[in-house]
Amino acid sequence: MSSATEDRVSRAGLLTQSSELRQEVESIVTTTPVIDVHTHVFPPEFGAMCLSGIDDLLTYSRVSTRHREPTRTDSAEVLERVLGNLRLAIEESGAEVTHGEMPALLVVDTQLQQLFQNLIGNALKFRGDTPPHVHVDAARKDREWEISIADNGIGIDAKYHDEVFMIFRRLHGRERYPGTGIGLALCKKIVEQHGGRIWLKSEPGSGTTFYFTLPAAQAQ
Fold it and tell me: I need a surface site. Which of 24, 93, 121, 137 has the fewest CB within 10 A?
């Protein structure tokens, strides 16, 4: 069996297992009290956390299994859509989100939306003591665009700059920063599906800038 065929089989198996696991969790959390070592019953959000993780895992798998051809996409329109989705989080955190002139890209538009949603959402979540400031910008690099998303948040130690893109890798406890640890792994997978790369620059307490490259759309 070729490596490509093995990869397809592996992804298909992951999708099947994730779907089956979601059904099992739904059944458990609606019919069975789960025991906690302190209170003897897990809080109601336990089931939601499990289901959220499975949904994120399914989304991660579908990036490869549900292939769509990239099309010319106005990244400014996608960004505005994402900011609308994040409106409550922006208002509640007192954030300011700005952006430069955004280009036309050759991408799958829904996947670009996932990229923006995850990275800007993280910038709002991992904030410091001051209100978040997030700036999105773009620079042309030959046949691709380099997109940057910079924030003034808590920052990331250099020793974790590669690890943060690993699936289920979390640097902080769920109590303060909820999440499943799949978001950045999903971002990496989306970017690489488009032939690009993703990286970051950050220091603790000095904010973070994520960079990723995506193919430029041909001029009309």
Answer: 24
Together in a domain, 158 and 202: yes
Please indicate, yes or no, whether the overall pTM of this predicted structure exceeds 0.90.
no
Q: Among the three residues 50, 65, 80, which one is the final residue of a domain in this structure?
A: 65
CA distance 217 to 65: 24
Residue pair 205/197 in contact (Cβ under 8 Å)? The answer is: no
Instruction: Tell me the pLDDT band of 81, cut-offs 50, 70 and 90.
Output: very high
55 and 119 part of one domain? no
Residues 102 and 169 reside in one and the same domain: yes
Which tokens go with 49? 């956390």
